[in-house]
């Protein structure tokens, strides 16, 4: 797994007969935003799996509680 990302910049000018292609590498601390680092940390590896499982369990219980409350008020006897 590479720690640096490669970038290719291609520019073509109408008045020039040559095409310009420049290649470079971006270091992780320069171009990587804070959100991307947090996302990579929380969504990959063992921590990512644990976050997905906890998110699924939380989603299940929220849906269950909303359904229970909705069903209670819909089927409530007068």
UniProtKB/TrEMBL annotation:
Record's GO cellular component terms: cell surface; plasma membrane
The keyword Chloroplast appears for this protein: no
InterPro entries in alphabetical order: SMIM1
Keywords for the protein's UniProt record, in alphabetical order: Membrane, Transmembrane, Transmembrane helix
Annotated segments matching region Disordered: 1-25
Pfam families: DUF4731
MF term (GO), any: protein homodimerization activity
Compositional bias segments (type: Basic and acidic residues): 11-21
Domain of life: Eukaryota
Transmembrane segments: 49-74
Protein name: Small integral membrane protein 1
Gene name in the database record: Smim1
